[in-house]
Amino acid sequence: MKLNRRHFLKTAGLSAAGILTSQLPLSSAEAVPRKPATGQSVMGLIAPKMTTVRVGFIGVGQRGSGHVKHFCHIDGVEIKAICDTDAQVLDSSIDFVVAQGLPKPARYTGSEQAYKDLLDRDDIDIVIISTPWEWHAPMAIHTMESGKHAFVEVPLALTVEECWQIVDTAERTQKNCMMMENVNYGRDELMVLNMVRQGLFGELLHGEAAYIHELRWQMKEIDSKTGSWRTYWHTKRNGNLYPTHGLGPVSQYMNINRGDRFDYLTSMSSPALGRALYAKREFPADHERNQLSYINGDINTSLIKTVKGRTIMVQHDTTTPRPYSRHNLIQGTNGVFAGFPNRIAIEKGGAGNYHKWDMDMAKWYAKYDHPLWIQMGEQAERNGGHGGMDFLMLWRMVYCLRNAEPLDQDVYDGAAWSVVNILSEESVNNRSNSVNFPDFTRGAWKTGKPLEIVGA
What we know:
It is a single chain. This protein is an alpha/beta fold. The chain contains 15 helices and 14 strands. Strands 13-12-11-7-10-9-8-14 form an 8-stranded mixed β-sheet. Strand 9 and strand 10 (311-317) form a beta hairpin.
């Protein structure tokens, strides 16, 4: 969905209640304590079985257009309607659907509120939301209130209060709200989850997660695409702007919200130098990109302590010149796995030398590939999307809805993983003092069922 710079500056403070504020609130966990439930828990929620999953899309720009293409190749799906403020990308997605021999979806555009007309339809079961970050919470809430299940791109929300509003709405409406963390469906992440469940690493102690992805080039996207709005977050917050890609898989390894939960966080940021230097090098001196004050530290490092005492390091860096990494490290009493590049060291059951990394992953894939990847991996890779993880995530969502199974990720996961964004900023601004996590599950994490090793 296209938003220009002026629109971003106008709506960056949009709350889930639809109120415009001059700046995003820095609500602490203590300021938003555990709230009394207004509905029933949705942990393990099973929606009524759907023979056909009828889909609507809000936002079909760089991410959403890919989702449209994948859904065209998933059985049991009907694409009913698509909405975007950019008529060009909207028509491109509609044309793609028609080119596959499928019925033409209804078209919604013309204003920033056109998505509400899509939500008024009674022939849509789920809505895929792929819009700029500040729209995620209000659109997810409106979707559930319209009687539909919400599937939202990352992050789920931008304030603690928005996280609570989404959780409350899901519980009140008994609708799914899943943040679409695609990395949980990568081959390596699925394999490590299988390894963890089989006890290969012993008792888990520590994890490391990251989003290290040099994205300075997005600053050249001025009037459209991701950089046209994402650049400005580097002028508004100093913390981990994008924690969920690395944190989602590690959280599933550790059964976060399903036997353990995040307790508190401490965070610190490096100086914010790289974006200003890049702007000086790549743009004229009087260019708008050189007039901005970039405050988000080039590298943010946050440490999370769980209730059971485990530790997780989470890093964010989209500015410095270095190779891509999500870390994907999990350490237990019997050994460790680390990604980028993949390597493993095991005391019992490995190569017999845990002082040296085993870099040959072929035998580990042969023994521990996740059943879901074994059954669906070839089709996922053929359809693509970050090596197949995008397709597999969407396929699995549809599978669960058509077979009356709980989703692999729920609203509590989305809230807990996303709130790192807000809490990291608060810690950074308070000399890295620790900040408590809200318990979005309201205590249900104590009896939550760990994610199983599901098949297809």
